[in-house]
Specification:
The chain is mainly alpha-helical. It has four helices and four strands; from the N terminus they run H-E-H-H-E-E-E-H. It has one domain. It has a two-stranded antiparallel sheet with strand order 1-2. It is flat. It binds iron/sulfur cluster. The site of iron/sulfur cluster (SF4) has 10 residues, from helix 2 and helix 3.
């Protein structure tokens, strides 16, 4: 058969995603949960969360986590945005301040 002659190529290391672990990850996870924040990291199902959050970096989504667009490559929920949470900016600012950034 034709497939038998195909050589298997080993996948590159960078293709494997690290599981989210470590103190920085837990700290970011805690801040996001405690302050009820939205991140594109989670809403967009970004595969880099383990690496970025593990280094203490997250990217906030503001004005909710619903997008009016429906891009085929993006995992953010599509729909009509909810009412603006006027306390969100304060929570975002506090979490950044607590994280020391
Ligand atoms: S900060 Fe990192 S995990 Fe968050 S969206 Fe950007 S690349 Fe993805």
């Amino acid at each position: 058969m034709e497939n038998e002659s195909v050589t298997k190529i080993k996948k590159p290391k960078w293709l494997r995603v690290k599981l989210p672990t470590g103190e920085n990850y837990k700290k970011v996870r805690g801040l996001v949960d405690e302050h009820k924040l939205h991140t594109i990291c989670e809403s967009g199902s970004c595969p880099n969360m383990g690496e970025c959050w593990g280094e203490g970096t997250a990217t906030f989504m503001i004005l909710g986590n619903i997008c009016t667009r429906s891009c085929g490559f993006c995992a953010v929920q599509t729909g009509k945005p909810e009412e603006v949470d006027v306390y969100e900016p304060g929570r975002v600012a506090n979490s950044v301040k607590i994280n020391g950034s």
